[in-house]
Structure formats: structure tokens, C-alpha cells
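Hi, here's the filled form for the chain we discussed.

Project: internal
Contact: R.S.
Residues: 468
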Amino acid sequence: MMKGTTTTRRVAVLVATCSSFLTPFMGSALNIALPSIGREFAADAMLLGWISTVYLLTSAMFLVPFGKLADLRGRKRIFVWGLGVYAAGALVSGLAPSAGALVAARAVQGVGGAMIFGTGVALLTSVFPPQERGRVLGLNVAAVYVGLSVGPFLGGVCTQQWGWRSIFYVNVPLAALVAALAAWKLRGEWRATDGESFDWPGSILYGVGLVALIYGFSRLPSAFGAGLTLAGLLVLALFVFWEGRARTPLLELNLFRHNLAFTFSNLAALVNYSATFAVGFLLSLYLQSVRGISPQQAGMILLVQPVVQALFSPLAGWASDRVEPRIVASVGMALTVIGLALLYPLGPGTAVPYIVGVLALLGFGFALFSSPNTNAVMSSVDRAHYGVASATLGTMRLTGQMLSMGIVMLIFALFMGGMAITPGTTARFLSSARAAFGVFVVLCTLGIFASLARGDIRARPAPAGHLR
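And the returned structure, exactly as it came back:
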């Protein structure tokens, strides 16, 4: 082992896990604050959904382009700049004078989030050998779930004691500190290609197509929404056509064409997040708006799921170094289906211990799925594609999260129109939630088959790479 390699690995684990904590912390804390934001800005349920969705949308738009830039220009460089942009977006969000300004500021945060998502896992995969990868990726996923765990509790405390803006202010010094540590202590730079140009046309087509698809989906069932969704699909089809002929493509399509493990692992991630992300959003609204529980108490209840995730993710990552990742991940997906089905009969008198038990089951299922699935994706490509592979997986996650929120907003539009959640609309809200959980059960059941179809990973030797 080269001198300094151990220190580099330790610093890489520290900065990657800290950054993996920040973004889910913000998202889960913000879910608790949404009712308070809605009251201050007189925002309806759909606008509140956009405060979360716009962050995911901008992140997904820029994730693959920044992943490619990281492969070309350096993963550490993009990572550090991303933390800076993320901190700036958090500061502006905290100062937002209106719901529209908050949505715009969250979009800025999403750009920073894309730069972080597209490089953090790639950095870890660059500095750790294959036989240790599952363990460190498990720690990284655990950091995500620690953020999800702390978020509802601290978000509830901050919202109740100092107002929802304090959630954003807390993120500013944390992100700045991680950026400074990475710039100061993470020696060297990692990139995998020299002399390649960046695919600007492909990046534009990708971003425009994705925005049109997701925004159009959120406006269904209107004619405008249907037209925009179709336009997004056509632009993404043009993107695929362009990438197949570009000299230096943004996205190497052969990763999908000739690598079933990569393709189905990403598909499984897309389906899993599509079926699960909006659960926290729905339950936060249910606990506070239907049951009248305070933000702090709601945060404590929602804490259960990510705590279980954080506890079991390292174990799941360790298991995926020894057992076929698809087996572990598929078991996790199956447990998630059961948990979602148990939420379907949610009503105004559903016992809180019942909800806590279901959240614990969902947390265990998520833990078994996420770490092994990440290990499967990163182990299925060579080092030259770590940035794009990490960014593609991140895109699947964010696109899945957007689709999850899009499904909920579509159901809200059908069941509630533009009405806010009040005692008079409780029945409609509960019908919306049950419809969403029903759709999620079907999606996650299909995801089990995608997870099983990926084939064996451990039997394939990892290609050698190099550090620059």
C-alpha cells in the first residue's frame, strides 16, 4: 500500500459520508416543516409538493452532466464546488420571502446536490478495492439514513422552537465545513479520461427532456400536462439517438446495452424510490393535519424508519460482499412491498404504534435493498465509468423520488383539486393517500423482478483502473 493511501481513504469516507448525511437531513427535516411553510405562505398541497420536487428535478437534470464532468475534470473538484453551491442555496432558501422564491432557491440547492451526488460514491469507489467496497458503501448509505433519522426530530424541534427557516440555516455551516475539509485534507485528484470534450448538445437534450417529462407528469391529467409529458419523452428519445452517434457521449449507452447487471440494478433503484419516497411526505401531512400531532411529535414517529435503516445498512453492505447482492436487495424489496401494503388501510383512527411498526419494517426493507444495490451498480463497471455510474444511479434515485412525488401530486389533483388539507377535506386526503399506497405496492412488486433479473455480480472480476 502506498504511503498516504490509508489517510486518503479515511478522509474520503469522512467527507463522502458527511455529504451523504446533509442532503437527506434537509429533505426529511423539510417534510416536517411543510405544514408550517404552507400556513405562512398560504400554499396548497400541490405547491408544498413542489418545494420538495423542484430540488429533486434540478438535481436529476444536472446529475449525469456533472458526473461526466467529474470523470473529465476531477471528482474531488466537482465535489467541493457542489458543497459550496449547496450551502449558498440553503442560505437563500432560509431568506425566501415567498413560496415562489423558496422554490427558486431550492432549485439552486438542487444544482449543488447534483454535484455532490455525482461524485461522492465515485470517490469512495475510486479509492477502495472491490473486496472492501460493500462495507464502505454500506457506511455511506448508513450516513444517508442517519440524516433521514435526525432530520424529522431536529426538523420538528427547529420548526417548533425557531421556525422553519432555521432548518436551512443549520445546513450552511455544515456544508461549508465538509467542503473545507475535502479541499484541505483529500490529497490528489481522481479522473478517468484525458483529452475528451464535454457533450454539450447531449446535456441540453437530457436536461430539457427530463424537465418536460417530470413537469408534464405533475400537470396530468390536463391536456397541457399530457402534451408536455409526450414532448419530454420525444426529447429523451432524441437524446438517446444523439448519444449513440456522439464521439464523446455524455452517457455511454453500452453500459445499458451490454451490461444487464448495471441496467437492472438501476431499474430496481428507479422502481424502489418511485414506490417509497413520498411515504414520508404523506405521513407527515397525515400525522400533523389529520391527527393534530405537533411537528416535534411527528418527527419522533417518522424517526423510526431511518433509524432502522441506519442500523442495518452497514450489515447489508457487509452481506453484499459475501452473498450475491441481488438476493439481499430482492429480499429488502419484498419486505418493502409488505410494509406499503400495511399502510393501505390508513384511516383517521389508525393506531400510532401500528404506524411505528410499519415504519420499522419499511426501514429494514430499505436497508437490505440500498447498500447491496449500490454495490451491484458500482461493481458492474470499470473505473473509467465510476463518475457516470454513480451519477446514473443517483439519477435513478432522484427520478424515482420525483415520480413518487409526481404520482402523489397527480392523485391530489384528481381527489382534492387545489384544496388545502383541512378538517373538511380529511376524507379526500385519506382517499388520496390510500390510492398512492396502492400504486406504490404495485410498483414495488414489479421492482422485485427487476432486482432478481440483474444476474450474478460477485462472479465477475472488477476491471483494473488507475488514479490520476
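Let me know if anything looks off before we file it.
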